[in-house]
């Protein structure tokens, strides 16, 4: 090394922080209150996402829009001691978590384990500061990749999801008696629950009635009063806190609370149930909220409805089930009309971002884990009706906590970094030929989203836009919710399945009973912990859903069929090795290798990011539509390969 080089090394700025990896291998070192440092893939060494690392800034000016650039020198402490993955040839582990960069070399015995098996590995300390290659030893085996049961168990183990409650747990939980508090009797109201057909719990209901003054209406949002049943620090509170959220994996439901307790707490049809209600007085002609009040109540659900039948009624009011009375029909129609006006008011005043995506989930039997198909989940007016009521209640609770000057727990969503939006704009322009305009301001983002072309490119563009945004998280201080356009927002309406909601209920109980409030410091710790648990839960769901889609494709692949299934795909990204395509029907990305293109002479152009063939007459570019069919499935690496038809 030259003398000049040595001098430059001495002047590198040393930093410590938490390394967060991207699926592509690069990552960032995050430092509280400081600019993040970009780490290229070849400078990551053996750091794993979440590790606390020592690094140096090698280029303070950095790359365009990426900030300072650095390299990791050592891992100070590991974020996790175990990792789940599939055994590859050569005693290597292929991690299930896509954010885990690199492979792990297996040491010790591999007796009884075959290539392709799911295994759990304990990471071994390598070198005094973890600077050598990652190594690990097998501690548990779950079964062969390609088995649905083993795949799901591997996901549960990798993301450290809790085991289901036992029968003994449910028997004990069924004996709980709710705490007493003065309650307002609201059993005379027309109240309904509206949920998915396969809902596991019923923690919210809505009601509508005449207001006290002419021209007004009373909208009630009634939430299961979970804080009456689950006492802070007791057994079921500790277990709920550990879980943080209910986990809804395909074929596996891991509830936050025991099923027997959930059944007691849920708002059930025809039964007097304790609730925590927010009652709004609204001008019926305009949908404008005039006032609201919050009460502990007793409610009785008159109808248990699902989204499909409510949507059918919206589309055709004559389609109502015979069991619906004329009065119930009238009240439901009134509720539909009111929430339409409320939504128009909110969209005008708050300008929420127009991000409507379609999720495709795998339908998997919880009894035998058989796959019965795919289901598209998208926002219809029946879902929007309930959403509008819940948004109003969540906002009202946040407003009350702030007005009464007590510590709270809030849902916030930070504005995106300008650099990330600039990257998004550049990619849209160069690869999709879509002009975004200046996206540095929120209102310009909303205009861009509203004017997106209504064609197959739209889901890909929305997906890229969402990846440019930070995650919504929990915080002990109110702040901007960028997606909703709100500055005071909390989570109150799902306390059976979200622990943050239960904490908000508990703080309100303390206010109402003049007992000890939770401190801001405690709620800040809980906010960070719950944000982490929520991300873990989401990642587990996506991993399980993606895995089971491979099984679904395998089921659909009939070697004897004259014509295999053909899917419409949109080219989302092009690299020299091939093209990543969004297949909306399946809700997944599939890879089309360059060698599978119909023109064998196709060449990748680095400048235009396109494949060209035959003197440029045939080309593939981002945004183009392809029709593809399944070529192969790799259960070990968890990917599907397609080829053009």
Describe the overall structure.
The chain is an alpha+beta fold and 645 residues long. Helices cover 29% and strands 30% of the residues. It has five domains: 3-77, Beta Barrel (OB fold (Dihydrolipoamide Acetyltransferase, E2P)); 82-158, Beta Barrel (OB fold (Dihydrolipoamide Acetyltransferase, E2P)); 176-413 and 474-547, no CATH class; 418-469, no CATH class; 567-644, OB fold (Dihydrolipoamide Acetyltransferase, E2P) (Beta Barrel), CATH 2.40.50. The strands form eight sheets. Strands 11-18-17-14-13-12-19 form a seven-stranded mixed beta sheet. Strands 3-2-1-4-5 form a five-stranded antiparallel beta sheet, with no helix packed on it. The longest helix has 37 residues, at 520-556. Mean pLDDT is 90; it is low at 5-9 and 127-131.
Count of the domains: 5
Mean pLDDT: 90
Main β-sheet: number of strands, strand sense, barrel status?
A: 7 strands, mixed
Supply the helix-strand structural class.
alpha+beta
Helix content: 25-40%
* Structure summary, number of beta strands: 31
- What is the overall shape? globular
Strand content: 25-35%
Radius of gyration: 27 Å
Q: Would you summarize the structure shown here?
A:
This protein is an alpha+beta fold and 645 residues long. It contains 13 helices and 31 strands.
Protein traits:
31 strands, OB fold (Dihydrolipoamide Acetyltransferase, E2P), 7-stranded mixed β-sheet
